[in-house]
Amino acid sequence: MNASATIRSAYVRASMMLEFQARLIVLFSSAIFMFAGIVDFPRIISKESPLFASIVFGPQVIHGFLFLFANAMLAISEQHKWYIPKISDPDWLGAFLNATGGFWFMMAGFFFFQKDELAAAAAAMVGSWAFLVRSLVRWYVVMEFC
Fold first, then answer.
1. Which helix (H) or strand (E) is 85 found in, with range?
2. Which has the closest alpha carbon to 95: 14, 19, 12, 11?
3. 3-39 and 52-78 helices cross at what angle (nearest 10)?
4. Which of 62, 71, 89, 95 is 20 to 30 A away from residue 103, measured at CA?
């Protein structure tokens, strides 16, 4: 095996590890967000409690940040050069849109901390649209093979 083939195979293994690590970060951030969703059920913790915002909105901010970080890692790993985005690649576009959605859900958590419900609703709407467009891109790719 020549040197370039060795380097190429090492790069492929490293990029696969990066994708695995990013997906693992998404899994852990989803578990954190699940905790916030369960605690937000009525009568589990009072909305007047001083810890309510930290327990409910804190995990939302952490989840959004980790989702942003993991999907930014994926988007950068899809590019041949880190500074040139691959807009025509559905995998890159999906990772970018997921990172965008994660950012806006993180911002919604920050806005909820500040009790700015209108800004939080707008941020959650933008994040939801990013996830919707990402789902449509993935659906298009899947239907291309049917």
1. none
2. 19
3. 160
4. 89
| pLDDT(146) > 70 | no
Which residue type sits at 124?
A
Is the whole model's pTM more than 0.85, yes or no?
no
- For residue 19, with 0-12 CB atoms within 10 Å meaning exposed, 13-18 middle and 19 or more buried, which class applies? middle
Residue position matching structure tokens 């576009």: 93
What is the per-residue pLDDT for 19? Answer: 85
Helix H, strand E, coil C: the string for 92-140 is HHHHHHHHHHHHHHHHHHHHHHCCCHHHHHHHHHHHHHHHHHHHHHHHH
Residue 86, exposed/middle/buried by CB under 10 A (0-12, 13-18, 19+)? middle
**Sign of the dihedral through C-alpha 112, 117, 122, 127:** positive
Q: Is 81 exposed, middle or buried (0-12, 13-18, 19+ CB in 10 A)?
A: exposed
Residue 19 tokens read as 């994708």
DSSP 49: S
Residue 98 tokens read as 């997921």
Q: What is the mean pLDDT of residues 62-75?
A: 94
